[in-house]
Specification:
Order of helices and strands: HEEEHEH
Structural class: alpha+beta
Distance between the termini: 54 Å
Radius of gyration: 22 Å
Helix content: 40-55%
């Protein structure tokens, strides 16, 4: 075997091992597990929706907002406006923070 072939095979093995390691790390740390499993009952903690033209966060079952963001809904993309009009159900605090960052940036 040529030296270049050996280096290529070695690099491919290294990338494969690295990919498997990252996958196992993510699996062990539940990365991407913000959504409940489908066999678990779903209970949402928050609802993000439009309130007086701005983005607001409501605790589930509440009529008054828990937080209001001075971000006019009309400045958002059409898909976000539509989602806010119907309300975005949020499962947990981590998901809430991620969605608020996306909507307000």
């Amino acid at each position: 075997m040529r030296k270049a072939d050996i280096i290529g095979v070695g690099l491919a093995v290294f990338i494969l091992i690295l990919s498997i390691s990252v996958f196992l790390y993510a699996l062990g740390n539940n990365i991407g597990a913000a959504q409940p499993k489908t066999d678990e009952p779903v209970s949402y903690s928050y609802l993000i929706k439009e309130y007086n033209g701005n983005i607001a966060v409501f605790k589930t079952g509440e009529d008054t907002p828990d937080q209001i963001y001075e971000v006019p809904v009309e400045t958002l993309p059409a898909a976000d406006i539509q989602n806010l009009q119907s309300g975005i159900q949020v499962y947990n605090e981590q998901q809430l923070q991620t969605l608020i960052e996306d909507l307000t940036s």
